[in-house]
Design brief:
The chain is an alpha/beta fold and 367 residues long. It has 18 helices and 13 strands. The protein has a 7-stranded parallel β-sheet with strand order 3-2-1-4-5-6-7, sandwiched between helices.
Length: 367
Amino acid sequence: MRYYLIAGEASGDLHGAALMQALKDRDPQAEFRFRGGDRMAAVGGSIFRHYKDTAVMGIVEVAAKAGRILADLRSTKEDVASYRPDVLILIDYPGFNLKMARFAHEQGIRVFWYIAPKLWARGEGRIRKLRRYVDELFVIFPFEVEYFRGLGMEAHYCGNPLLDTAGEPATETEKLIALLPGSREAELKWLMPRFVEMERLMASDPRWADYRLAVAVAPNMTLRDYECWLPQGSRISLYRDGACNLLRRSAAAVISSGTASLEAALVGTPQVVCYGFNCITYMLARMLVKVKYISLANLILDKLIFKELIQDESSAPLMLSELESLVFDEDRRAAMKADYAQLRDRMGEKDAASRFAARMLEILRTK
């Protein structure tokens, strides 16, 4: 069977690779073409475009690069039409993938959406397009099944693939603080200067004398992307062996909201989430986003497990104040870890990618 997959960021590349491997294990004749990253490429098949060449975030930032995005969309449509897959598998990335869903549907290509758009976070206006252009919807949070059913669309839930990639909770940590500023240029621009300022504040407090700071380098970024923000004399190190590995070693973490925050919760690392935007993007986002939390772990348990410092609150002094509580307050650490254990129970069993692949193949072979 011929599969075409589209992932637009690092987390999509991670989940796409696991799904591809699971499909490959069950379908010896599987052929893959994809937009994705290094992890998907390692599984096999042919890559059309790497996500790092097209990653853009923020309403204002997207508008500024509209011409490039439209050209990218046009060339992707041409590539999908030329490849003529048995199924197009879209992985999250809704702004781009909704357009691809419509195109594939009009071309008579079956459309599966893996990791559904978070309509519960940003409004339900897209549901009509999902119902019209997507043949099967696959979700990775248990509450999404009933949510989409209430909108008139059935969804398949087979677990959350992060349970496999994150592994078991860490049992021992070092005097290390993990810094995860994200995988996009705009995220680094917001958080890296604040990390540098936080390092300066920590240097004057003897409680932090033995602690080290380490930034997780995203797979799509280079060392230079981070080094350009570090002043001469900075002792912040750059870590290239995977965010989960760094989180597993760390006493606490400061994280840009996203998949990494959920990974930290599954690994068991106490964290504070920090996020900020261009001012115009932030004002527009406040009008569009309707959930009370921006972090997946907080959303899943519907409680504030860890702090979310947004926009002006994501300052170096407030980050450091929260880190002090996470590192030196044993009761706070214990309470957060207890919430993390409840979260893991809520998310189900491991081997989700395998179950998703089995369900997809069952549908492809019988419908």
